[in-house]
Design a protein that fits this description.
Layout (H helix, E strand, L loop, with lengths): L7 E7 L2 E7 L4 E6 L6 H4 L5 H10 L5 E2 L11 H12 L12 H15 L8 E4 L4 H10 L5 E5 L5 H8 L3 E5 L11 H7 L4 E7 L11 H13 L3 E5 L24 E6 L12 E4 L2 H12 L7 H13 L1 H23 L14 E2 L10 H12 L1 E2 L1 E2 L11 E4 L4 H16 L1
Parallel strand pairs: 4-13, 6-7, 6-8, 8-9, 9-10
Antiparallel strand pairs: 1-2, 2-3, 5-11, 10-11, 12-15, 14-15
Helix pairs in contact: 3-10, 4-10, 5-9, 11-13
């Protein structure tokens, strides 16, 4: 089609499709423009308070970052060697969907050795990091409209994972007075006829709190009374500084109802290797294997072999690192309690402190963003983890003592003004 001289560009809609019209010297070209409209379930998806802080840090220089829940220690060299050895020995093909048998056996041995929990390797699923477990588990267990109870403050991705699998997240408010563990009254106020399950996470992220045996036994009675399943995220089991870690599946009547999630990311400093694991009933494991065949088709073979070696050989190093985290948390806790308007509960578990900053007169969001912009110290606002977290901050003691003390210097100066 002759159009005459000149160039032009316009967008027109014809027959329900967008077309870009290029007009050149002699001819007009029509090029289809694909309408990349997001699915309705994601069209209004907004980044969480946690993600917004992470995104802001990426654009700044000289930030002391206490927001990231990742050990600063690198993976032990002999674990790395175990992965390399596996490659040289030919483990470079697709792995079994459920995970290699020796890796599942190593997970069983680790939990029996440390917590007296006994399981068959047939009831273990090896996942792409701990975060993949809830997604597959909810995919296997939830029908549209099923409700799952979230104990506040909770790890933010749980909520999206429930929604993404057709479920409805139901927050359960808690208070610091009860160690951020739910009372029976708080649980009963949240349960309905559509409630299918409950997520537990102790030691907790973000609170760092450790639920007592008595508290967990009370939850177990509630679970049994309402015929619920439990996803018990115990990824921080190796880091308990006050009290004891109680494996929820070990409580009477709970093993058959519990999906026990853990992994090597925190305990063995292997976040980048992406290996988690789940103990669960066989029918759940089987369905998760089917779901994973549509998504990942198994977990990296070399990472699995490195993880098996790690779980079998590193107990003393895990204890040594936990001691270092405990010392860091105690030092940071002391500094926080000396600051104007700040109160910090003694460290209990994981590597998180959850100080109360309500005495400063600022909200969690205000404090977080002002601290980041004015003092270049990154923490996470407590309300990013549910409404029960308002008035608190999550501080990850995953930096060297030197960096932690520099951060406290800046934060102390910030609180003076």
């Amino acid at each position: 089609m002759r159009t005459g001289a000149g160039n032009a560009l316009e967008i027109r809609k014809e027959r329900g499709k967008l077309e870009r019209v290029y007009t050149a010297q002699y001819y007009t070209f029509y090029v289809a423009v694909v309408n990349m409209e997001l699915a309705k379930k994601f069209s209004e998806q907004k980044p969480s308070g946690m993600v917004r802080v992470f995104q802001a840090i990426e654009k700044m220089n000289d930030v002391l970052n206490l927001s990231i829940g990742e050990p600063d220690f690198v993976t032990e060299p002999d674990i790395v060697d175990a992965g390399a050895k596996a490659a040289k020995n030919g483990f470079t093909h697709y792995p079994p969907l459920q995970g290699y048998l020796d890796v599942r056996e190593a997970a069983c041995a680790y939990w029996e050795r440390h917590h007296g929990f006994k399981s068959s390797p047939d009831n273990v699923y090896i996942s792409v990091g701990g975060l993949h477990i809830p997604w597959l588990a909810f995919g296997a267990l939830l029908n549209p409209g099923d409700e799952v109870m979230l104990i506040e403050p909770y790890f933010t991705p749980y909520e999206a994972q429930i929604r993404g699998n057709g479920g409805v997240p139901v927050p359960v408010k808690t208070s610091e007075e009860n160690n951020f563990a739910p009372t029976l009254d708080e649980l009963e106020a949240a349960v309905t006829s559509r409630t299918r399950g409950i997520i537990l996470n102790y030691p907790g992220n973000p609170s760092g709190r450790v639920a007592t045996r008595k508290q967990l036994e009370e939850i177990a009675k509630f679970v049994e009374a309402h015929d619920l399943f439990v996803l018990s995220d115990e990824i921080y089991e190796s880091m308990v500084f006050k009290g004891e870690h109680v494996c929820f599946a070990n409580i009477d009547g709970m093993k058959e109802r519990t999906l026990l999630a853990s992994g090597v990311s925190k305990s063995h400093c292997m976040t980048g290797w992406r290996v988690g694991y789940l103990f669960a009933p066989q029918n759940v494991i089987n369905t998760m294997c089917v779901l994973s065949s549509f998504q990942t088709y198994g977990v990296n073979s070399l990472s699995q072999k490195a993880a098996a070696y790690a779980m079998n050989t590193q107990d003393e190093k895990v204890k040594a690192r936990a001691k270092i985290f405990g010392e860091r948390m105690k030092a940071v806790e002391k500094r926080l309690n000396a600051m104007k308007g700040v109160k910090c509960h003694p460290a209990e578990g994981a590597f998180y402190l959850f100080p109360d900053i309500s005495g400063t007169g600022m909200t969690s969001e205000d404090f977080t963003w002002r601290l980041l912009n004015d003092a270049k110290v990154a923490v996470l606002p407590g309300n990013a983890f549910g409404s029960s977290g308002e008035g608190y901050l999550r501080i990850a003691c995953t930096q060297s003592m030197e960096v932690l003390m520099m951060s406290m210097d800046r934060m102390e100066e910030f609180c003076r003004h």
